[in-house]
Amino acid sequence: MLDRSIGELSRFIIIALGTTILGFASGHWWLALCAGLAAYVFWLLWQQNQFDRWLANGRRGPAPTNFGVWGDITDDFYRMQRRHRREKQKLHAMLRRVQDSTSALREGIVALEDEGNLAWWNPAAGQMLRLQGDDAGQPLVNFVRDPRFVEHMYERMGGGKETNPQPITLPAPGDDTRILQMEVTRFGQDEALVIVRDITRLHNLEQMRRDFVANVSHELRTPLTVIAGYLETLQASGQAPRNWERPLGQMSDQTVRMTSLVNDLLLLARLETSERDSGRDRVSVRELMERVAGEARSLSGERHEISVACEEDCTITGDAGELHSAFANLAFNAVKYSPDGGPIEMRWHTDGNGGHFSVKDAGIGIDPMHIPRLTERFYRVDAGRSRESGGTGLGLAIVKHVLLRHSANMTVTSVPGRGSTFTLNFPTQKLTLTSSEAS
């Protein structure tokens, strides 16, 4: 830049000296100097005009041929234009590759802008959501009207507190036989990507599994009842041979265990297939904790010290039976897996995030590697110990589904050899202070 300024100044000095020398020869040096400078200025303005016209014409065709400072500016601009064209071509090629690759995906991809308006989508998304080319610019919620998706999208786009971070599963628009899974991911300020997956096959397989488990469990109830009745009759009659007493006792214990397993399977199947939202019972937390504590003490047989601390008495809106099952499962597990004499603490407290019911024991503890899988069906940290305690392996799976139906979740903290703490976290909207607390 400095070299160009010096060059242009040198050119100006040469023109001024030349015209001055010619002016001295003619006797009118100042007229010659003014004429030379005017010609120089005119030449600069003419080059500027040529350059402005080329810009105004959309930079079509080659840049004008100029000299001096405008020649340098034109050359630099032309080089920048060529570099910009090359970068633009690379960008277009990259976009074409991205579009070609997304077009080959089975998952649908929808790009949103302006707070949820359709910007672009791949063919799979267009097929699953029945989008047409002229739908661009319209809100996606005009085509996917399910209230759960509208709420999910509103939360992910930053309009509210996110209560359900999981993808939404819903019927395809206009085709209830197809099941879609949709998830909104925000980027930038008002932009987002929607990933759409067709999970109809997985949904049907899962439904078949649920129906199979429910039907088999229901069919097992009758023969188990008959077997249990005959065993009870034989044991009570005293007519069975003495060497049969032990086998009959074992058969009776296994029948009770099998009946408990069937009942848990039926309860789990009902929780999975019923509506997501729970009932409208008003369940007193204090009364529920006292009832569960009494049942846990009966199970313990005074082998454990069970304490109850309810800092604030609230009512939870939901299903009374399901809530009792969730609370009781945690308390019973603490009894089963705690050594004799170990303390068990049941506590309820509230804070800005809602209400929290926790059960703390001083039992064997759980290795952190097992915690993510605790709510899986039939998953056992110690299979031998679980069978000895009479567990079915379904208790925490039932707790998980009860919490899902009450918009709640569970956290687990544990140290092997030092005990565990299971906490059920209920959102504020599910809680109501009792009249005495409220006053």
Automatic annotation (TrEMBL):
Which subcellular locations apply to this protein?
Cell membrane
Q: Which reaction does it catalyse?
A: ATP + protein L-histidine = ADP + protein N-phospho-L-histidine
Q: SMART domains under this entry?
A: HATPase_c, HisKA
Whether Thylakoid counts among this entry's keywords is no
What EC number is given for this enzyme? 2.7.13.3
Its protein name is: Phosphate regulon sensor protein PhoR
- Bilayer-spanning residue ranges: 12-45
Q: Which SUPFAM superfamilies match?
A: ATPase domain of HSP90 chaperone/DNA topoisomerase II/histidine kinase, Homodimeric domain of signal transducing histidine kinase, PYP-like sensor domain (PAS domain)
Q: What is the lineage of its organism?
A: Bacteria, Pseudomonadati, Pseudomonadota, Gammaproteobacteria, Cellvibrionales
